[in-house]
Write a structure and sequence with these properties.
- It contains seven helices and seven strands; from the N terminus they run βαααββββαβαααβ.
- Strands 1, 2, 3, 4, 5, 6 and 7 form a seven-stranded antiparallel β-sheet that branches.
C-alpha cells in the first residue's frame, strides 16, 4: 500500500525560513548526528545522491520546503512535562467533505526559547499531508505531519505572525475538539465530530 506526502495549495502557507542550528538540534539524536545534519544543510539539493549524508541533505531540503509551502494550523501544549502538543486540522482533500481531526505529537518544545512553554501555550504549526490510494478515493488525506513553528524558526516575530495568520475558527475548532475528546493520554490521530459547528457541503 503506497503512501504519498504532498504539499498541495495550502490555504495558509507557512512562508517561513528555518534555522540550520535549530533544524540540527530538532532532528539530530546526539552531538555528532546534529553536527552532521548542520553541515549537510549547506549542501546542494542534488547531494541526496551521496551515500550516508545524502539522506540528511535531503531531509534539510524537505523541511525547508515544508515550512515554506506547508499549511499553518493551530497547536496547543496539553502536557508540557511530556512535551505533548495537540494540533487541529481538516483532512478533506476535495474541499467538500470535512474530516476534522486532532493530532497529538511529542514535540521538541525544549528548543523554544522566545516564550515560556506551559500547558495551554499556543503555537502555530506547519503541516504536510499524507494519502493512501484508499483515502484518496474517499477525497481525504489519511494523516498529517505537523511541526511547531517556534521549534525551528529563530525570529520570534515570524513565529508570532504565523500564529496570528491562523483564523479564529481554526483556534475555536481546536479548543472544542479537545473539550469533546476529553483527556488524551498518548500521541496519535483522533477523529472528532464537529458537524454541528463547522463546514457544510455547500
Amino acid at each position: 500500500m503506497g503512501v504519498v506526502r504532498e504539499i498541495v495549495g495550502a490555504s495558509t502557507p507557512g512562508e517561513l525560513t528555518i534555522s540550520r542550528s535549530r533544524f540540527a538540534n530538532y532532528i539530530g539524536r546526539d552531538f555528532i548526528d546534529r553536527s552532521i545534519y548542520w553541515g549537510c544543510s549547506f549542501l546542494p539539493r542534488f547531494a541526496h545522491k551521496v551515500p550516508y549524508i545524502g539522506n540528511k541533505a535531503y531531509r534539510w531540503a524537505q523541511v525547508v520546503e515544508f515550512f515554506w509551502g506547508g499549511c499553518l494550523v493551530p497547536a496547543i501544549v496539553i502536557d508540557a512535562d511530556r512535551s505533548y502538543v495537540a494540533v487541529f486540522s481538516n483532512l478533506t482533500a476535495d474541499g467538500r467533505h470535512p474530516v476534522p481531526v486532532i493530532k497529538v505529537i511529542s514535540e521538541g518544545l525544549h528548543l523554544i526559547t522566545s516564550t515560556p512553554v506551559k500547558n495551554g501555550s499556543k503555537f502555530a504549526a506547519t503541516s504536510t499531508y499524507l494519502a493512501t490510494p484508499e483515502s484518496w478515493k474517499l477525497g481525504q488525506w489519511s494523516d498529517f505531519h505537523p511541526m511547531v513553528v517556534d521549534c525551528l524558526v529563530d525570529d520570534p516575530e515570524d513565529c508570532e505572525h504565523a500564529k496570528q495568520r491562523i483564523d479564529r475558527d481554526s483556534w475555536d475548532a481546536l479548543r472544542i475538539s479537545l473539550e469533546r475528546l476529553g483527556p488524551i493520554r498518548k500521541p496519535g490521530l483522533y477523529h472528532v465530530d464537529l458537524s454541528d459547528l463547522m463546514w457544510t457541503d455547500d
